[in-house]
Structure formats: structure tokens, C-alpha cells
Amino acid sequence: MACDFAELTAPGVAGLTPYQPGKPLSELEREYGIVGAVKLASNENPLGASPLALEAAREVLAEVARYPDGNGFELKGALSERLGVEAERLTLGNGSNEVLELVARAFLAPGREAVFSQYAFAVYPIVTQAVGARAVVVQAAAYGHDLQAMAQAVTEDTRVVFIANPNNPTGTWVNRGGLEAFLARVPERVLVVVDEAYTEYVQLDDYPNALAWLDRFPNLVVTRTFSKAYGLAGLRVGYAVSHPQVADLLNRLREPFNLNSVALAAARAALGDERFLARSREVNRAGLEQLTDGFRSLELEAIPSVANFITVKLPRPGAEAYEDLLRRGVIVRPLDPYGLPDHLRVTVGTLEENRRFLQALGEVL
Ligand SMILES: *Cc1c(COP(=O)(O)O)cnc(C)c1O
Asked: Which of 23, 158, 199, 235: disulfide with 154, CB 3.0–4.6 Å?
């Protein structure tokens, strides 16, 4: 080879480890010849997508020869109304992943730091390293965020803190008082990204809605997604709510047509589908209970979760159990990439999917 291209990359790029997604059903079929498998690996909605969203998507297909609305005017209007925030605070992303990346590209660089927790969402280290910034990983407390330690880890060089609430892959959450105290303590020059990808599932009195603090803490960035409770993971729609100046900066960096027209229309329709959302919450609540009971029967210890997935500790390596489950037609998520080699993360499915998973798990233990 004439030259080593890895040496030619921008700082951080050559050292990246690719994100490992959940195994797609089609891949299991191709590699193992298994049909009719159950996928509980990517925290997708087991009910599929909102029927209203699907209808809107079908309608807009007739117009795909046109570029989408690059400003997402209608979706932003609907979000603004629904969330009670000004449209100028919104940044739409191709999934909230993209919004997280925009924050990193806008505010991180070599010589700067991002702080996040041990067992944090895998996208945080990737977007941090991709722009050559330093990741400061703070030890978890009971698998969740240690906000005091995270505040102490903030230095002159810190520009961004990432907090997922609830956290993926552990399902843990931070309460209102804890998060508020953290925000009050962190200097304003540090952006605090509160990633609320699973917020629609959480029904706890002490769980904070970070949007309520936007006026008080201008450095707060709240991200949300249509991929989970709204069932639109394949269409890629997420957004950030922030100070208008932060939104303006992110929107300058954003590609002009980062959301396609089908995704924009479907997301807008999904936002108005209260029935689907209520049903999704109910199926999840029942499924979490079913899985928790099932783990108890198998004498396994699970990390209490408020999201649409639950992480369980096994008496054997998670990667092996994962393989054995694949052969039984059940796809879950091994967590060795997260530093949890004895754990598996399982998405809450329908009652029947959960039953199949629990049965297969009992067999492989
Ligand atoms: C699933 C998830 C997201 C959402 O990703 P999208 O790009 O919106 O599909 C964001 N943050 C966390 C913590 C997640 O688990």
C-alpha cells in the first residue's frame, strides 16, 4: 500500500470503534437459516408504528420528487405546540443520534472534553472521539449516573456533559432533585445534554421533565426521538430543544435536507396519535412486569428499569448466552461492548415475544 490512510485522518477518526447495532432479523435468517425469530435487541416498539404515521407516510410518497422542507416547518410547529417550547429552540435530526453528533461537532474539538458516565450510551464516546475531543468517563453508582462525581469531573476544558435519562443500556434514571442540583452546579459554558430517548415510557412522580428548566439553564440541551415510543426507528427522526442560540448554531451545521419528507410527515402524524402512545406505554408496563417476574423465577438479578428494555445479570458470559439465544430464534443485546460481560439487555416485547424469550433463556442457562 502506497500510503497509510489511517495516518491521514482527522484527529480521533482512525481510533474509532464502530457502533454495534442489534442484529437485524434478516441477518439471523441469512446466517442461521432461522425464520420467525423474535428481535428484542434494539429497543424498538413491539407494536410497530402508529397507524396514523403510516398513513401520512404513504400519502407523502406521491411527492418524493420534491426536496423536503429543509426547515421542517410543520413538524417543528407541531412539536412546539405539543411541548410548549418556541420553534426557534428546536433542531431536527436524522434520529437523535444526529443531534448528538451535531452537538459534538459544534462544541467539541481536540483539547476539549466531554464528560459522561460509565455504561453510557455508545454514541457519546463515538461522537466525542470523532471530533478529536477527550472522553472523561465517570464511574457509575449502582449502574447509574453518579451526578456528584460527574460535576466534580468538569474542568476548564469541559464543553459537553451527556446524561441519558433513563440511561441505555442500564435502564436507570436520575430524579428531579439530583438533576436540578447538577444543572445548578455546572458552569454555564458547559452544555448539559439530557438525552430523553425513553421519556414517554416513564411514569414516576420524581422523574424530571428537563424541558421545564430551559429558561433557567441556558446551557441545557434536551434530546428526544421518534424511534422508541413512537415506533419510527427506521425513519430516523429526533430533535433537540435548547437555547435559541444553540439551536441556531446546530442548524447552521446541519445538512440542509437531513430529514426526508416521509419521515417529517410520519413524525408529525405520530405526535398526534395519543391512542398509539397510550397503548405502547401499557404494553411496555405489562411487559416490564412480566420480564421482571420471569427473571425472579429464574433467580436472576435484573437492574430495575423504567425504560422499554431491561438488563439482567447471568451466571455465565453474556456473549455465549446471546449466541445460544440466537440459535433459538431470539435476538437480544450482549453488553460486553459496554463493559458488562455478564449482562444481557432485552427490549420489552409483546407478551408472546417476552414469553418466548423467557422460555429460551431458561433453556440456555
Ligand atoms: C435509542 C436511543 C437514542 C435514539 O436514537 P435515534 O437516533 O433517535 O434512533 C438516543 N439516545 C439513547 C440513549 C438511546 O438509547
From this structure: 158
Ligand 1 pocket: which of 99, 116, 123, 306 to mutate (most atoms <8 Å of CB)?
123
Residues in the chain: 365
The answer to whether 288 and 348 have CB atoms below 8 angstroms apart is: yes
How far lies 282's CA from each of 47, 198, 209, 220, in Å? 11, 14, 20, 30
Pocket of ligand 1 (CB under 6 A): 43, 95-97, 121, 164, 168, 195, 197, 225, 227-228, 233, 238
* Interval 111-136: pLDDT, tens: 999 999 999 999 999 999 999 999 99
| pTM reported for the whole predicted model | 0.97
Atom of ligand 1 nearest to the CA of 169: 15
**333-334, strands of its sheet edge to edge:** 301-303, 309-313, 343-347, 333-334
Low-confidence ranges of the chain (pLDDT < 50): none
pLDDT tens digits, 79-109: 999 999 999 999 999 999 999 999 999 999 9
- pLDDT recorded at residue 1: 65
Rounded to the nearest angstrom, the distance between the alpha carbon of 35 and the centre of ligand 1 is: 27
